[in-house]
Design a protein that fits this description.
Radius of gyration: 23 Å
Helix content: under 10%
Strand content: over 45%
Number of strands: 27
Number of helices: 3
Mean pLDDT: 89
Distance between the termini: 28 Å
């Protein structure tokens, strides 16, 4: 849910700040999303990535920092930030991986841009100078992590604008189920997709919410994938009762003594949530997990007693793979 919160907050910040980002027409890239290289005047303000949003003659730079020491950014000097109302400060939002990002309006590329940064530790604004290098511009596509989301369509067609849709992301491909029952693929969030005539649609990140996918009550066999070659499951039995889903997972090896539904950092603080490995009749490790949704990435942590360490992992249970114990599709 942290990722969904990041999407929503990030786009809100873009909408709040974009009005201040009017650029010179001659220097403005075409509408779209780009990655761009950024030079910072301070090693303490280390930018690891920047995505440039260009919409209707305005530019907003979404910068990602290597650290988490700054609570706010401001498009101007430290003196100006101190005098500005707090609701004009740009708060950090966490991205998919928990890094701090800030949506900063900018007016030009290849020129020094003043940005103030507010230190959480010292409760003080610091002056920073950034240069966004146009020579490094590369088209960029914003792809949602694998999962199913409910969203809202933005469009210049009144009959489509504001309509609800379902977005499915899988293996880098995204498909939108339209209100009329049709489906269309989209290459990127936050970009206009041409439709018939002059019509366009866009699915905005701030509209995305995780869509819960459940199976009907029953017992199923299912396929499970993970993001780690060290964590593989040879079998998954999914039990659904009154809408609640429980997965019994059989591991391919005996690498991990516990699993936790959540992050490694959360697992360290919540021993009561540790799920122990239970040997089955064949001696293989099995784990019993409560599952919130199919077709959505599930964050889990695995614990190695040998190394005394928790590891962050993700798993995915595909609803299309479900078969009842008798071998039939549900």
């Amino acid at each position: 849910m942290k990722r969904i919160k990041w999407l929503s907050m990030l786009f809100c910040m873009l909408l709040m700040t974009v009005a201040a980002g009017q650029a010179e027409t001659a220097d403005l890239p075409d509408d779209g999303l780009y990655t761009i290289g950024v030079q910072s005047s301070s090693r303490m303000f280390n930018i690891t990535r920047c995505v440039l949003h260009v919409w209707d003659g305005q530019m907003t730079a979404v910068i990602t920092l290597s650290g988490t020491g700054y609570g706010y950014a401001y498009p101007g000097t430290a003196e100006e930030a101190n005098a500005a109302p707090m609701d004009t400060w740009i708060p950090y939002v966490e991205d998919w991986d928990g890094a701090y990002t800030y949506a900063v309006p900018i007016s030009a590329l290849d020129e020094e841009t003043a940005v103030a940064a507010y230190s959480k530790r010292y409760e003080k604004w610091y002056d920073r100078t950034l240069v966004f290098h146009s020579s490094t511009l590369t088209p960029y596509e914003e792809i949602a992590p694998d999962g199913v989301y409910s969203g809202i369509i933005s469009s210049n067609e009144p009959s489509l604008d504001g309509q609800e849709c379902l977005l499915t992301a899988k293996s880098g491909m995204m498909t939108v189920d339209m209100p009329d029952g049709s489906a269309t693929g989209i290459a990127s969030l936050d970009q206009r997709l041409p439709m018939e005539g002059t019509c366009w649609i866009m699915v905005r990140t701030d509209s995305l919410k995780e869509h819960i996918v459940r199976a009907a009550d029953g017992v199923y066999m299912a396929e499970v994938t993970t993001d780690s070659s060290l964590l593989r499951f040879t079998e998954c039995t999914l039990k659904v009762e009154n809408g609640q889903m429980t997965a019994v997972l059989t591991a391919k090896n005996k690498n991990f003594d516990y699993i936790y539904v959540g992050t490694a950092a959360e697992a360290v603080q919540d021993e009561s949530g540790w799920i122990p490995a239970l040997p089955n009749a064949d001696g293989a490790y099995t784990y019993v997990l409560e599952i919130s949704s199919l077709d959505n990435e599930i964050r889990i942590a695995t614990y190695s007693a040998r190394k005394k360490m928790w590891y962050d992992r993700t798993m995915f249970i595909d609803s299309a793979s479900l078969n009842t114990k008798g071998g039939e599709q549900p």
